[in-house]
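Deliverable D5.2: sample structural annotation.
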Amino acid sequence: MATEEGATAPPSLRERRRQAATREIVEAAERQLEESGPGALSLRAIARSLGMTVQALYHYFPNRDALITALVSKGYDDLSAAVQAAVEATDSSDLPRLVVAAEGYRAWAVAHPEWYQLLYGTPLRYYAAPVDGPTTQAARRMSVIFQRELFGGFSTAQLAAADTPPLSPGLRAHLESLPADGPGELPPPAAALLLQAWGHLHGMVVLEVFGHTSFMGEHQAELFRRSMLGMLADIHRRIPGRRRAAATR
């Protein structure tokens, strides 16, 4: 049928050229990010590196925020892929999968400090991510991995009965209002534990990436693993009953 042929028609020459130019611009922005850090991102410099004018670049990205959003989304996607790959590659029963995921997160951050700074460093001046846009969605995809590895195997009733300090009515209501494809899927006590675990993990990685634990030298990896193991044990002690072992693999 004609409609089927139209649906499978290849992109036109003009569309392919636009896709290629867009890809070149993003790649040039990635090089600038990796060479000079996120604070140096400049549309003028990116355009100059490609032999373009800034006005020509605006045909592909209407403003600086749109290009930064593309970079941030890619950074989150790459980080999520690294974390998921670390979890899928493990075949050891000696190390909890949450710790494996955390170590995958740390390894990516240490290997890509400029990208990590873009995602979690000082916010870029005048940049505002689109509300519930691609950057938010990409961040949620990574959150789901940690949520699964932290709480997989526990029932909703167990998570709701987690032993945490009493939540204020306002905090409980806010946690219940979070999107269902993230912490909002969890009972409020478990959502609070997830966010505390995230803060612990993120804090350890930030300290290392920005050089604040360099005095530990080659022992930074061991320190991180011990910290993650202790955090995980503490959280699981707060959840009543036994975790179903079959759900952790």
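Annotation notes: The chain has two domains: 11-62, 69-248. The domain at 11-62 is CATH 1.10.10.60 (Arc Repressor Mutant, subunit A).
The annotation will be released with the project's public dataset once the embargo ends.
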